[in-house]
Amino acid sequence: MLIPLGTDRLPPQRAITTSILIALNLLAFVGMMLASRSGISSLEDTLNAGAVSRSAFRPWTLITYQFLHDPGGLGHIGFNMLFLWVFGQAVESRLGHWGFAAFYLVGGIAAALAHMLASPAPAIGASGSVAAVSGAFLALFPRATVRVLLFFFLIGIYHIPALWFIAFYIAIDIFSQFAGFLGGSNDVANAAHLGGYLFGFSIAIAMLGFGILARTDLDALFLFKQYRRRAAMRAATKEYGSGFDGATPNTPIPQSISRSESEQIAVPPPTPDRHADVRRRITEALRQSDTDAALAAYRTAPAEFAMSDADQAELGNRAVAAGDAETAVRAYVMLLDRRGERNTGQGGSSDEIRLLLASMLIRRLGRGKDARPHLKALDDRPLSPEGIALRDALKSELDNL
Questions:
Q1: CA-CA 20 to 30 A from 39: which of 47, 81, 237, 366?
Q2: How far apart are CA 28 and CA 14, in angstroms?
């Protein structure tokens, strides 16, 4: 069993709505028990009045069922509130207090509808709403890690990727739901969980895609686009290597230089920009994926002209893919000059840029003298094994020039 204890995505402010929702669930649980003991209402009557059910559907139960839990023990409400606390804080920090409250309740409604489609049995509990929150967390913070308490052959606290943790519970629900369809005994509303996950993930992705939520380099859309860029860059470097490599055609090429999604639109500075026209043409061409137009405009720009780091790296990437080593070298050199001592920033790692730059200078342009400072700067850098192999191969080729 994996029990979540927290994540590495701590909210910048107190998660007020998450705390209120947990308090309301606990108050409903305690109130239900007190009402039963005082004779005001039996547990059965309370659960029947608030549970959501296909066979006895009442509209208000789409909300009330979310705050009722199994009175037979603390496990049901305890696990739901723990998951809500662990994942709800970070999601609330992105959606805002009121936005998170609405998202939580509508997510519970979506989970209830999914359950009613799959089963006529009544359902109670916040697990569908919490599943929606977990699905949103997966869309907004796919690279987060979760601190978990593991009860299996080993007992201990471990840190695992949120993607794998949430996927583990989704897989359990899928398996259990299919087992239920095949006649297996199951008292858990797995369809509600799955409906919640689907709702939370898809709505969060839609909000990112339509700009309702600000994009970051932590969300799932960024990872997907980064994967596509890396795949395109790998294809480009393979083609580049087959045409440009000299003595070592099988030397590995560094991974693509990633471009940040946080700077999608180049905003002109408030002061007059004498290069505004060419900057606008390049920006529009890049956004429209018109590589030829972007590179043509950049080639005619003055030597001191520079775009933002992300766009400057993108120009270099596109020049490499087009086989234009001279323009790629110009773009990458300008990017490195702008950064100075900074090794990271918009557009990717300076170490990867230097490797690719040195490779083009030596293998394509035969400018070993220009490549030497970039290789020297990489001597003490913590490169990947592939990066070290490429650096050493380039040094060896440099000596033979």
A1: 81
A2: 23
Cα–Cα distance for residue pair 30/272, rounded to 1 Å: 65
Of 243, 266, 322, which Cα lies nearest the Cα of 290?
A: 322
**C-alpha to C-alpha distance for 1 and 250, rounded to whole angstroms:** 46
Instruction: Look at residues 128, 160, 140, 122 and name the one whose alpha carbon lies nearest to residue 46.
Output: 122
Which candidate, 192, 171, 188, places its Cα nearest to that of 180? Answer: 188
Residue identified by tokens 């996950």 is 197
Distances (CA, A) of 254 to 210, 248, 386, 388: 33, 15, 7, 10
Torsions phi, psi of 352, nearest 5?
-65, -40
Tell me: pLDDT of 247 over 50: no
What is the C-alpha separation between 351 and 363, in angstroms, rounded? 18
Cβ contacts of 384 within 8 Å, gap of 6 or more:
254
Contact 90, 17 (CB under 8 A): no
Residue 264 CA: distances (Å) to CA of 71, 231, 281, 311:
51, 20, 15, 9
- With 0.70 as the threshold, say if the pTM is over it: no
With beta carbons less than 8 A apart as the criterion, state whether 228 and 221 touch: no
DSSP H or E segment with residue 170 = helix 162-181
Tens digit of pLDDT for each residue in 173-195?
A: 998 888 766 666 567 889 999 99
Say how many residues make up the chain. Answer: 401
- Which domains occur in the chain, in start order? 2-209 (1.20.1540.10), 232-399 (1.25.40.10)
